[in-house]
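Follow-up to my post from last week.
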Amino acid sequence: MKRILVIALLVVFGIYLAQALFMLEFGQQFFESGVKDLYLTASPLKLKVANTVTAIVVNFRGFDTLGEVTVLFLATTSMASILYKGRHKLGKRTVLFSASNIVTTGSKFLFPAIILLGAYVFIHGHLTPGGGFQGGTIVATGFLLMLLAYSDYKVSHIVLSVVESFAGITFATIGLFGLVYGGSFLENFLPTGILNNLVSGGVIPIIYIAVGLKVGAELTGLIYIALNEKD
Amino acid sequence: MEMKLFDIDIIEYGFFITAIALVLIGLYAVLIKKSLIKIVIGLSILDSGINLLLITIGYVKGGTAPVFSPSVIKDMPLTMENIKKISEGMVDPIPQALVLTAIVIGFGVTAVALSLVIRLYRHHQTLNIDQIKNLKW
Amino acid sequence: MIIYLILLFFLLALMIAAAIYSVVQKDLLYAVIGTGVISLVLSVLFYLLQAPDVALTEAAIGVALTTIIFIITIRNTTRHEGESKNDKAK
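User reply:
Got it. Predicted complex:
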């Protein structure tokens, strides 16, 4: 009885949604000159940044990025405080059967390459598609590979906490400097260079490097806490 | 080749239909299923459907990615008219910046929800929501 | 031109089929792999809609990290839907 009612409700909901969405044309421009033209012309002319999505995420809507980094930090902290009982000691997990020879040898070769790829992606965030969040998750995937191959792999908690805290403090301090020198929080106060150079765009590469390191350290800590649960 | 069905082109609105179908399947899993892990799987499918809908709205037909790389500029002087002419054929970059944040926050919500599931299993020894009756910890 | 349209149709149909499979299946490990397939096809669709940053983020987070968090939860709780610890002890 409950199942039939729920299916009927979902069908009605779907019909209303489809009727509202089919009035939009697929692939048309909606306004003659709107916010899209403002952002797309201000990014290579005023800020000298080639990737427009990076300019929007860091400069035009930079306060939302600060909030998102805070939400990730909250997720890691609350996960560590909910699962506080019954944890293994660091580096002594129990596995059913250990990994084979191919996995243990191959992951030792792949690990530096993955870290290098992640660092390349978040350093060149303003020139090519990429940036802090993408590079941070690639670094966390590299650490996950090492954690799965060796059951006694250790990552020290103190190093992760120090890296994460310093990156967060750097982000907030650059914003306060912008308030002192520019006039508003997170204002671009360094000189912008030439388009498509590595050193261009003012504070934008520095902020994205800090965000990349912070996201990588946080996601590694989250996976590490979840893996060391005693069952 | 376009198939006309009641004067609607099917392949053009295929993206909208898929996004709405994902939202409905996720809602069905959250409302009907009895195991807690299935409910969290439904929440994750719901997130994916909404993100697809947001990116589909910002698409322009025949558009390219919003990046001003050296092969796009091709030694043109950087004046307002040149940049405006290039940016006429580019896709809207604003929904992409919003979806970037939404994906990361969706993953954070899933991780905290699953840690709560582990804690509940340790206390009640079951994952069936009909048998978890008392609200006290 | 026609091959392009048929491939697009195939990708959209695969995504809906994987979603229905992961809601109906009773073995929870198979359902989690269905969620991974949804994220993979979604990353390809984001690339076809000219959004490369979003495709990178969805591929890294949706496929790798979400699947591993689900598998850790299944390891600490039940494997099939609808069993409990009293059934496991018997």
